[in-house]
Amino acid sequence: MSDSRARNSEVSKMARQPRPRLTLDIAAIPTYAIGDIHGRYDLLVKAEAAILRDSARLPGRKLIVTLGDYIDRGPESSQVIAHLMEPPPDGFDRICLAGNHEIAMLDYIDGWISYDDWMQMGSAELLKSYGLDPEHLPLVFPSGAKLDAFIRQSLPRTHIDFMRAMPVLLETPSVIFVHAGINPKLPLDRQTDEDLLLIRQRFLESRVPLPKLVVHGHTPNDEPDVRPRRLNIDTRAYRSGKLTVARLWQGKVHLFST
């Protein structure tokens, strides 16, 4: 299947089941956003340790917002999901936003995309993290239907349910947290899940003023991409070993990476 057909499958799925969107006032809450993790459990643990060190001098409860794409490509997708399902560090709350890779996994489970299309997302590494062999399985189950049924039964239901419940956007009075970005030509209440999870050029290259600071991932860079009203903290963690964190507090942004 072509990229456009796979994208259309995702669009169809998301159009039928819009995902939750959250609003929260974080003016008095030190907030840490973590970029795309992609199966790097080791880096997630290091990032949280760095957050704890950084937050030690800050007052009150704090918030961690993860920006999606927890799975695929890196070696420890299952460990990342299991960790995010656990309680956050002491003194913190945590919000896990959905990324397009979580949506693709759910689309495969629900039969909207094929095994081969799902594998193009880097999901072979995900299967390995759950103890499944993506190269051997098609030989054991030459029937696509039996292969799909086996994989769907083998993936932990608790992990699947966790991904199903993920919101797609967190809006605050001054900041929007989202996986991919927003459509600059539409108000927030008219944004589609497709754009929030997949948009690139129409967002990145737009000259339309954004309504507030947008903190996002999805488009990998060697370094964080810092703009007046846009902050991209996807730094290819699965390959670079650099998982980037943005601390937002009192109108200022501080960046650090593993």
Automatic annotation (TrEMBL):
Keywords in alphabetical order, please.
Hydrolase
Single Gene Ontology BP annotation: RNA decapping
**Protein name as it appears in the record:** Serine/threonine protein phosphatase 1
Which InterPro entries does this UniProt record tie to the protein? Ap4A_hydrolase, Calcineurin-like_PHP, Metallo-depent_PP-like
User: What Enzyme Commission number(s) apply to this enzyme?
Assistant: 3.1.3.16
Pfam families of this UniProt entry? Answer: Metallophos
Coiled-coil stretches: none
Name one molecular function that GO assigns to this entry.
Answer: protein serine/threonine phosphatase activity
Q: Report one GO cellular component.
A: cytoplasm
Which superkingdom heads the taxonomic lineage of this protein's source? Answer: Bacteria
Boundaries of every Calcineurin-like phosphoesterase domain copy: 30-222
